[in-house]
Prior knowledge:
Blueprint: E1 13-17, H1 21-32, E2 36-40, H2 46-53, E3 58-60, E4 74-77, H3 82-91, E5 97-100, E6 113-117, E7 120-124, H4 131-144, H5 147-166, H6 170-180, H7 183-188, H8 191-203
Parallel strand pairs: 1-2, 1-4, 2-3, 4-5
Antiparallel strand pairs: 6-7
Amino acid sequence: xxxxxxxxxxxxxxxxxxxxxxxxxxxxxxxxxxxxxxxxxxxxxxxxxxxxxxxxxxxxxxxxxxxxxxxxxxxxxxxxxxxxxxxxxxxxxxxxxxxxxxxxxxxxxxxxxxxxxxxxxxxxxxxxxxxxxxxxxxxxxxxxxxxxxxxxxxxxxxxxxxxxxxxxxxxxxxxxxxxxxxxxxxxxxxxxxxxxxxxxxxxx
Length: 204
């Protein structure tokens, strides 16, 4: 059983071994989280090459060697060659986070299927048992939590900051936080206008 966490990898060094479609998919997730990425592969997809040309990552056009993992915080082995992936697993240090795409048992973390809606992040993992099932669940959740829900979460964040700065009474704060988080409030729409009504009601 894994221990779910949200990692802040902004500006942290991530090394991806492999230049195929699986590697490219992993790279996009790392880029979304603002990781500092190095790709090690003798060949790469057109997408990876474009990212390298745009300065979004560093591409070492070579086969893997253990020194490629120096200073890496996150290591992802995503080649279609088991012997290379095994070499990566053996070269990784105990303190490094490592994901072997074709060998969950050799990994100490798994990359979940992810939905991002503004500040809302939903991650689905089967612990490496079936990435396909994780993707199926992700698609189902994506229909429930659409872009409009993402805007609602962003609204909640802005509201929370405003309430913390401007509402001194702790009981009033709690009531506001509870009310704006209710499903009925979210479904009403016109959130800013309804918040103003709430503020007036609380002050009366």
